[in-house]
Write the structure tokens for this entry.
Amino acid sequence: MVEFGTLNFGSLDTSSQKKELDLNNPSEHLKLVIVGSGPAGYTAGIYAARANLNPVLYTGMEMGGQLTTTTIVENYPGYPDGVEGPVMMEEFKRQAEKFGTDVRFGEVTRVDFGRRPFILVIDEEKVISADAVIIATGASAKYLGLESEQRLRGAGVSACATCDGFFYKDKVVAVVGGGDTACEEALYLAGLAKKVYMLVRKPYMRASKIMQRRVLDHPKIEVLFETETLDILGDKKVEGIKVVYRRGKPDEKVYEIPIDGFFLAIGHKPNSDVFKPWIETDENGFIKTKCKSTKTNVEGVFAAGDVQDPFYRQAVTAAASGAMAAKEAELYLQELEEKEREEKQLEQI
Ligand SMILES: Cc1cc2nc3c(=O)[nH]c(=O)nc-3n(C[C@H](O)[C@H](O)[C@H](O)COP(=O)(O)OP(=O)(O)OC[C@H]3O[C@@H](n4cnc5c(N)ncnc54)[C@H](O)[C@@H]3O)c2cc1C
């Protein structure tokens, strides 16, 4: 259970006397707050604003979300010639603002969903309250932590085979990981690439037996067990990888493999920590939503996009669930208003 009451500024405090945040006195009350500015958040904004819900959207540190870190997006409907990720997200924002979404730069650093209205703390500076909240904070792919991996992101290094696999038609690629997702990515890539190396750190895979079988039986996939990536080679684009076989063992071997694309499939970390005390997540931190909806375990709090989607993780699916969340929030707010009206009427009797 989280303890809420007053909150010290700690190191953010600039005055000599410590400021305190009074969570019982929010400086602003809002009908609907959307947390996150990726495809899910902005789409929720478009729908909620058009439904007259006066949504306020907090962008977080990565304004525009994950797509601002990529170059060309070719699989979002409506852009037959492809579109630069940052350009597409600017257009999402423009559309959300056009209908009245109040887009504000700021991060939700704490919440209290145990009281009504809900309490949200922005940048540890401002306390607001809201009748309904849509969480659209996305998920971040896990990387190995190599310098070359960051340098070559978007230049041959990718964490999404569905997004970038098409660029490796008839080329040679490597996939890192040994779980079901890694197997799915390897199989997807094998449908496009000439050859797929699958790099598995352990002497076995974590994936389900059926996925292992599919991968091991595929003529284009070569699984390299007990193999770790030491470096990604290439100056401007990926040209190969340096790997180590059986690191630290007497028969350790370091060698290079020429490849064109390097795909990470070692998991995603959903940005759900800030909500966790109140909102149910699965064992990997993805927010649990109720069957075919964006409803969470807390009535009035909805989750959309990658933060609740361990499987599809695409811009179009994130946007679709953002629209669902806005529709569901609209219905919830209508019911809330009706309830409040009835309560007032009863008080007057
Ligand atoms: C390199 C790359 C290329 C990709 N290419 C494609 C592609 O070609 N096609 C495709 O369909 N998909 C692609 N994807 C996947 C796609 O980007 C995601 O599926 C999509 O962005 C998910 O949208 P989202 O709105 O759920 O979250 P995100 O886009 O991750 O946005 C999350 C938002 O939440 C904000 N946020 C996080 N925490 C907080 C907080 N505490 N308070 C306030 N805000 C917060 C962040 O600042 C961000 O704005 C790609 C992903 C990557 C990384």
Observations:
- Residues 43 and 322 are 5 Å apart (CA to CA).
- The longest strand covers residues 126-135.
- Residues 35-41, 58-63, 65-67, 69-70, 73, 75-76, 107-108, 136-138, 141, 159-160, 163, 271, 274, 305-307, 313-316, 318 surround flavin-adenine dinucleotide (CB under 6 Å).
- The chain is about 25% helix and 25% strand.
